[in-house]
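2024-03-11 09:14:02 DEBUG pipeline.ingest accepted 1 chain
2024-03-11 09:14:02 DEBUG pipeline.ingest length=256
2024-03-11 09:14:03 DEBUG pipeline.predict start
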Amino acid sequence: MKMELGINTDFEREFVKIEDMKRSLEQIAAAGFSHIHWCYEWDGDYIYAVSEMKQIREWMEEYGLKAKSLHASKGSRKETEARIEAHYRKDYASLLEPNRIAGVELIQNRVELAHILGAGEIVLHMYLPYEEFERQPGFKEIFYNQVYRSLDELMPFCEQRNVRICIENLFEAPGALQIEQFTRLCGRYPEKFLGLCLDTGHAYLVWGRDFVEKLVYPFRDRIYSVHLHDNLGWGEKPGCGDAHRIPEDIDSHGKN
């Protein structure tokens, strides 16, 4: 199987000026990359117009780039609360039906963008309100029921466009709950529609070096996307936390 390696488009930072966004693609091509991971607007509730999608595709064609994947947005929530204390716009896991439907439409927008750019998958966050699970007996099933409703609605839309959703492992929730999360989702949905995005940096923060045994090996047949980056685990020195550094770019002392 041929491996496609892409670089995230916001490698420098998140741009909003069109000239800067196009320049980032030019720099990626000049560096010798053939594929990109479109990462602008990965968080928030921005909706791409079809004209913008075609504009991005034209830029890619100009620089000879292809799209490996893109990072979708789960909604306007910027914080990753372990407890639900408010409701946010366009959240596909929301308990409020208008917000949940809006969240589905936001993901459909990213699926359409992936389709036009020629990407085969979108990467999606799914935050687990694990303190709420403990505080309210039965809430876990209520939460997953909302997630299932949204994914059920997204599945035919994705299949028509040949785009797979890859749920990313995160570092905000306990490892056991994330394993349960992926077990539930992979058991319910076919691999053609749903897979996993393995984020190596997040996995190291949660499981340490055991992440291969705990996460990769059990779900090896459902990993279709990888976010490859490095960190030094939890701590105070440079390179600790979700540092998003190039692998081997930092030594054990956190130096560049």
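2024-03-11 09:14:41 DEBUG pipeline.report Helices lie at 18-30, 50-63, 97-117, 130-135, 139-161, 175-188, 200-207, 211-216.
2024-03-11 09:14:41 DEBUG pipeline.predict end
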